[in-house]
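Hey L., structure's done. Input below.
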Amino acid sequence: MFVHNVKDKYFTLSFLAILLFPLFPNIMGSSQVHINVLVLLVSILPLFFVKIRINKVHISLLCYFTLCQLLLIPSAINDLSNKDVGLSMITSFLRPLLIYITYLSLVVIIDNVSLEKIFSILKVFVIISITYAFIEIFLLDYVKQLIFTLYKREHRENLYNVATTFFGTSYYSGYVYFSIFTLFLTRLELDKNKSTIFVTIASLLLVFLSQSKMLILAVLLAILIYGYLSNSKAFKVIVTIMLFSILLLLLNLESFFNYVEKYDLGFFRSLKTLLMYSSESNTLNFRIEQIEYATSLVFNSNVITGVGLAQDEMLESWIALFMYRYGLIGVFSFIILCFYLSRYCLVAMNADKNNVRLLSKSIFIWVMLLPVSQLSSAMIETSKMSYLSSFFFALLTITYDRSKHE
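Output:
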């Protein structure tokens, strides 16, 4: 009982501390290396209490991160010839190992934490987030000094009307709340109280306030996938109506954008360019150029492994970053990992316990959409987002194990 209570409190404090910890952009710039150090320090202590039943999820993740770590050896050697060894290089090289340690630590911590407790912590975090987001957007002039000191980069004026919350960038923020939304989306089948409904809507709203087009797409796809998985006829009807509404909107894009132009929102201008004039979209073209750049470097050097750690490279999408860091093997390994984790989710979805079955649905949706959600940036390897991703991997490990030992 004592160990259980300690793990409970440790998870609560560490989860909230890591996600809410300041980025100090005036000091650190765009770097979040201090967050990586914090995550490592928080993750080390639970490893002294390791007692894990090895299952297929654990083995798959161990194989994936081991392969990634091995593939980084030639990439690191390439960088050593023209760069000084520093903390950022070390953490960049050891990233797969650090993520695996974080994952292992979270499995140990949350194994005895009830799902009700986990969802309670998530509710607290979302309530804090939605409150902060409204202050960040609508009251920025009154608290800008504090927000710029703790989280938001002052020179990024394009983010002033965007809810980056505690993560510094629109798609970082969008990814966190998209991930939480997938958990609460299925939770509504089991728990329909007002707080659960509010947090589900709030997490959805936070994704839209982030104005990340890729994560908004991921949310819409998550709802559609859940509509297919759900046993609720009412929800299936809602999803069908939503699908037809989207199709109708796509057929009348010009009229829609002409209507919303009067609100002078940068998000809709950017979305209009992306959907109607894609050749002029800086965001789309920039990411395509990054993929082409990384691919050409790898194919001209060594197709099997990567060409560097990508510390000084602007490579945002997972395809470009993984191609540069891990080579062609790394790209295909990520796709294979998503496939196998999806299969394990399907197995866990046959569990007798309703809460395990519903949680498995959420993680299935999240895993299926990883190749989409990571197109903005390879966030499963980045700072606070890697911690949240490890949290999802840990949840899958535990739900899969419980489904096999009921």
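Residues 2-231+281-404 form one domain. The chain has a mean pLDDT of 85.

-- N.
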